[in-house]
Amino acid sequence: MKTFCCVLPVYNNAGTVRDVIRRILLQTNSLLVVDDGSDDMDLPAFCRELGVECIRHPENRGKGEAIRTAMTTLAARNFDYMIVLDADGQHYPEDIPLFLPLMEEEGALIVGCRDFNDPNVPGSSRFGRSFSNFWMKLETGCSVDDCQSGFRAYPLAYTIQLPCRASRYDFETEILTRAAWANLPIRNLPVRSLYPPRGERVSHFHPWKDNFRITLVHMRLIGLRLLPLPRKKLIPPKKFDFSLLKPGPFLRYLLTENASPEGLAAAAFVGSFLAVLPLVGFHSVVILYAAARLHLNKMMAFNIQHLFMPPLAPALCIEAGYFLTHGCFLTEFTMETLWRQLGDRILEWILGSLVLAPVLASLTALAVWLTALFIRSGMKRRQS
Questions:
Q1: Which of 54, 53, 84, 81 is nearest to 67 (CA)?
Q2: Angle, to 10 degrees, between the axis of helix 312-326 and the axis of helix 261-276?
Q3: Spatial separation of the C-alpha atoms in residues 266 and 263, rounded to whole Å
Q4: How many helices (H) and strands (E) does the chain have?
Q5: Per the count of CB atoms within 10 A, which of 19, 225, 259, 338 is most buried?
Q6: What percentage of residues in the chain have a pLDDT greater than 90?
Q7: Ordered structural domains, the chain, with CATH
Q8: What is the phi/psi pair of residue 144, to 5°?
Q9: Could you give the CA distance from residue 277 to residue 214 in angstroms, rounded to a whole number?
Q10: Are 142 and 183 in contact (CB under 8 A)?
Q11: What would the pLDDT profile of 187-220 be if each residue is shown by its tens digit?
């Protein structure tokens, strides 16, 4: 049986934290409260009344730092897991026992995936959840249903080793991605969630500022993912059994890898974008490399490039680049304009490709997405 301690990061949640603490204590006596510089109540005094340990930050450092403080403290005490939940009353402490069976899997990081069927769920939360889920899939290849959920169980011996830089809400984004890179199993666990009507819920998540921080973290993680850097696997990966004499399993893997409509659209975007760029002689290699690093469908990314084979894509890019630099289109195709002015054409090709690549890639991705949705809906109709 794994040992665990519940962790409650708190910042100015005087209206809800008392009830949350009492409800946690009905589930377990093992609780650590981290007061991240609250100034709306004497939280340490309240914790002392209930016999609960409270660590206080003198000033607000951010949710990530509060989680890091708890992680360091509990890892030093040899706990196997810490179960983190929010102090705003959104999570149900009564769901804590649901985590315990999944904690028996070695190194599993368990994400409590919130029920978003409640009509009171803000639109910004729905968007943020979908946005983070999409980028998590690109960064790791893992399908996580609720990347922004704060109700999680962390395997301390493993997560304490992850080199996270973020310190606020973006910490939860970064540690999830780095855990997947380290080959920790990421498990989805459906949990309940409570969203009071608009105006009644107290949240310190700033939709613009914190989503901007999360976006910057995703950009940094995508950049790191594209670099061919070795990453330590805290749990050894399973070996893929591939034989040239029996290529069937490998081909099936390539065809079904990240084959959701969104996954296929992302692969089409990357393949199209790179195919339009003037990477003469290297398109296939670069596309396969990017698809492999971003866990995209390699078959889609590789084959979509054939839509942009010469001379069509280079000609369109040169025309676009010529228009941007001269204000008109190139209409004279002679030895003089094509070969003796080759340097000019190459610069126009590069300039035009930077403009057309995102446009053509977006249109291609949209077409692939719509086609995949149509095919999937047809398959569901036939099955029903």
A1: 84
A2: 70
A3: 5
A4: 15, 7
A5: 225
A6: 42
A7: 4-226 (3.90.550.10), 248-383 (no CATH)
A8: -115, 130
A9: 29
A10: no
A11: 999 999 887 666 555 565 666 666 777 888 888 8
